[in-house]
Each structure stands twice: as structure tokens, then as C-alpha cells.
Amino acid sequence: MAKQISPSNIAVIGMEWGDEGKGKIIDFLAEKADVVARFNGGNNAGHTIEADGKKIVLHLIPSGVMRKNKLNVVGNGLVIDPKVLLQEIEFLKKNGIKINTENLVISENAHVILPHHIEEDRKIGGTIGTTARGIGPAYTDKAARIGLKVYEFIDDVMFKKRFGDEEFYQEYKKYAESIKPYVNDTSLIINYAINKNQKVIFEGAQGTLLDIDHGTYPFVTSSNCTTGGVCTGLGISPKKIQSVMGVCKAYKTRVGNGPFPTEITTATGQKIQKIGKEFGATTGRPRRVGWFDSLVGKYAVMINGIDSIAITKLDVLTTVEKLKICVAYKHKGNIIKNFTTNIKILQNCQPVYEEFDGWWDDLTKVKNYDRLPNNAKKYLRRIEELVNAPISIISVGPKREQTIVARNEFMF
Ligand code: IMP
Fold it and tell me: Pairing with 268, which of 84, 160, 262, 301 sits 20 to 30 Å away (CA)?
């Protein structure tokens, strides 16, 4: 992928296990965007945005709704729980956020989550630690070619033919009526916008290591959260993607089960968890906390073709006396320098760390890169070197204003 200066579209991709702060970054970039198009996942995601004195957690609707006059697209790659979608629309309206058929479109080819998917997820999702929202079972039906697409759902003849005898039919029929006005051919809409040189954000949910193909399988979600998912989940050609921005935290977190080589089990981990308010936006579960893992970063850069990085929550590390960055894994006496999705190795390796001195300055009001403490700059520079990509954005707090643009050429 050729590096583009001031691209007209940007894919925003999670570099880790989700919760990197994509919502905030997308909201920041959306100021200059025309379209925000989400391409994967469902209401397992929780994108937190603080703007105009409000803190809103979005689960299904793209993060562009927090800005005026943006088109928000829910792509074919998603699985949609219609009840949750309608609740989210109502919730946003109550909070004074405009939602109508002018600023929200839903793909006719997305799949629908039905009550039995949720029931099944509750039964079988335990070992993975899923969000129990029916995501996996709905994608399973999609792959098994027995899923229900949105266009069938909103056509009562088709919906009734398949599910007319089910207990949920009457209730869901009403949901179908309510979402019908939003449904459209979103692939056509996005391609049109791209061809008109409109500014488009491709909004990822979850992250690279939760990707069904490239993540730490089986401890993954059931969709492609990586750049490849942009094409399949929205119906656009890879040649149309001009720029990819990876989002990662200044430290690492993970919710749910599965290997996490740099997990911190000491009091420092609890301190970061507390200061960083590391509790799941969707389920409220505490997130496990770890040191920055450059193998994961380098892997995410490679898999996604990341041009630049938005690093979030740098402010949380203030007062951590010694910071660590993982530069290799040790496994059975061997040094491993490249990430592997082999969970047997991940579960049995020891991280090799470089240590960095911390800083004590409050970063939450810093507006430009030069004003960051030297130790923070050193830490960031080493990350850039190790993961092989420049940092374009540094987030130092949840608010829009708490965002430092370090390299302008990667912005709209
Ligand atoms: P599922 O997506 O509900 O099937 O859950 C599969 C795994 O992905 C579990 O470990 C979840 O905790 C994790 N997961 C799913 N969505 C998110 C997210 O948006 N952020 C962080 N973790 C997630």
C-alpha cells in the first residue's frame, strides 16, 4: 500500500485485543470526515466518546454520530441485534444526538442476531469469555449459510416464512419495521463517496489479536477486525484504501481469556488498571493490564499495512517509576523476535524487557509533542523504532482537546 500524504480515506484499526481507544480517535478524525463506515463485529464492541460535556458509549452505531452532518454506515460485515440497535438509536436521541435516515444507513447484507444466538452464546461462550451478545453464533450461521440477512428480516413475507412460528416473531417483526427506513445498499453508497473523493473513515471494532484469522485463536471474536475486513465488510476494493491508522494503548490490556505474555500481576498492574479505569465498556469486566509488547505492535503493522499509529492513554503512565517494553519472547531457551499466534508458545514464553525511566508531569493538558517530558518522548521513540511505524497521534485524556497531532501528513 503506497503511503499517501493527507489521504482522503483512513482505516482505523485496533492493534491489540480491542479497547485501544478507537472511538475517541475516530471521533477526533471525524471532524473533517464526510462518512464514517463500520465494517465488522456487533454489539460486543463499546466505543467510548467524550464530547460536548457528554460521555457516550456506542455499541453498534459508528462513532461519526457525535459530529453533525456525517453519514454513518453500518456495513455488511456486521451482525446486528435489532433490539439493541433500536435502543441505541433511542438512547442517542434522548441525549440530543440527531439520528435519521439522512445520517444513518444500514447494510441490507448485514446479518441479524436473533434470541437463540444469544442463548447459545451464553451456553458456549464461557471458555473464551465472550461478551455473550450472540456474536459468535450469528457469524456461525452466516458461515453455515443459514443466517438471516437484513433484507430478508425487513421483508415480512421472507421473515415469516422462516421464523413465523417462533416465539420472538411478533416482537421482532416490529423491530424490522422500525429499522426498515435505514436499510440500503451500503456498498454502492461508500463506493460513490470514495469516487467523489469524499473523506471516509473505515471504523474497525475489536483489534488485530481478536481477528478470527490473525488473532490468538480460539480466544478471538468471529469477524475480521484487520484491514482485510474493511474490503469484505463494506464491499470496497483494497485499492481504494489510501491510509491505515493503527490504534494502540501506551500499555496493553485484554478482557476475556487467552494468553497475554506481558501481563502485569504486581501492584503496578493494579495501579495502571485503576488510573486507566480499565473496566470493559460493554460488560464492565476488569481488563487485564500488561506492558507494551512491541512484537504485537510490529505484527499489527505488518498484518494491517499500518502507515501511522495513534497511541492512547499516555497520561495514565505518569508516575509509573519504571516502564517496560517487551522486545522479544524467550521460549524453551530460544529468543523469538516475531509475534506468533501459536497459543502454546504464547502461554509458555517469558517476555524480554527493556526498561525506561518514567515521568511525573501531568500530561493531560499538553497540546503539542515538544512539550512532552523527555522520558515520555524516549519511550515513544523506542516504540516507533520497534514496531516500524511513526506515531501520528498521541492521546493524553478522554476529551477531544486532549489529543496531540505529532505528524500532520497522516490526517485528512
Ligand atoms: P465475542 O466477540 O463476544 O464473541 O467475544 C470473543 C472475545 O473477544 C472475548 O474475549 C471478548 O472479551 C473479546 N471482545 C469482543 N469484543 C470486544 C471489544 O470490543 N473489546 C475488547 N474485547 C472484545
Answer: 301
Q: Domain residues for 291?
A: 248-410
Instruction: Provide the CATH number for the domain around residue 406.
Output: 3.90.170.10
Domain membership flag for residue 278: yes
Domain count, the chain: 1
Question: Residue 164 domain-assigned?
Answer: no
- For residue 1, pLDDT beyond 80: no
Q: What is the average pLDDT across 76-96?
A: 97
Q: What are phi and psi of 159, to 5 degrees?
A: -65, -45
Residue 51: predicted pLDDT: 83
**What's the rounded mean pLDDT across residues 64-79?**
96
Whether residue 360 is contained in a domain is answered as yes
Closest CA to 349 of 366, 327, 371, 368: 327
> Which pLDDT score is estimated for 81?
98
Q: Indicate the top mutation candidate among 24, 44, 60, 312 to test ligand 1's pocket, ranked by most ligand atoms within 8 A of CB.
A: 44
265 in any annotated domain: yes
Q: Which residues line ligand 1 (CB under 6 A)?
A: 17-19, 44-46, 128-131, 133, 135-136, 205-206, 210, 219, 221-222, 255-256
Choose among 78, 85, 84: nearest CA to 110: 78
Q: Is the pLDDT of residue 360 over 80?
A: yes
pLDDT (tens digit per residue) in 163-177: 999 999 999 999 999
Nearest-atom number in ligand 1 for the CA of 285 is 12
* Mutate which of 47, 84, 131 for ligand 1 pocket (most atoms within 8 A of beta carbon): 131
pLDDT on residue 2? 46
The residues carrying an active-site annotation are: 19, 47
CA distance to 21, 164, 289, 374, 404, per residue, from 311 (Å): 9, 49, 16, 17, 10
Do residues 199 and 32 make contact, with C-beta atoms less than 8 angstroms apart?
A: yes
Q: Which of 127-136, 155-164, 320-329 has the lowest mean pLDDT?
A: 127-136
